[in-house]
Model the fold of this input.
Amino acid sequence: MSENPLPEHVAIIMDGNGRWAKIRNFPRFKGHWEGVDRVEDVAHAANNMGIKYLTLFTFSTENWRRPQEEVSMLMKTVCTVLETRIDKLLKVNIRVKFVGRRQELPQEVLQSIDKAVGITEKNTGLTLNLAFNYGGRVEILDCVRKIAGAVKSGEMALEDINEGSFSNLLYTAGMPDPDLLIRTSGEKRISNFLLWQLAYSELYFTEKFWPDFGEREFKKAIADYQKRERRFGKSVSVKKPAAL
Done:
């Protein structure tokens, strides 16, 4: 770690739970449970470092295509985790937010998420965004629908549509775009995650599976980020542009 600026917002694609379990001859759910522990480790590390936002790709809109047994297990897991571990987040001043589509989620999952969000809403430390039932293309389409409806009703004029007004209708409205995207497991793609928001993000890829990615690996990623020069299209290093 250096004295250079920390990222304000870090996004993570937590990949490799199933492969981590497979090479150890464990059932897949063991990998997911081990991954839950890493979520807690990384969230606490980010909070202690003073990072303001951490967005975790928890369940994608494409994950519904997985075997029904695994999907059901993942739904039960998120409910159990939010019910049993939310007090820990509350005590260390972490705030939980939901980023994604609510429509397709089971009622018990929505209740668990809403409870966690409500309990922690007054916390002022790290904002932990759970991107659950999230897809970047779906988010953009939902935003376009909102704009089309606002223009049709006369609430918005065509001249009012710009990058700022568009960003304010995304799931992440009110948050800065990620400075850094981390993806584990050796894959080098963004997989429909935060397509609009990642336009100028720094990318960090690691061979580590998510269950092996703890506080030490997270700090390595942050240290790597601190060595980079961010130009935002200009020829010299510049400060992050102010929100539109």
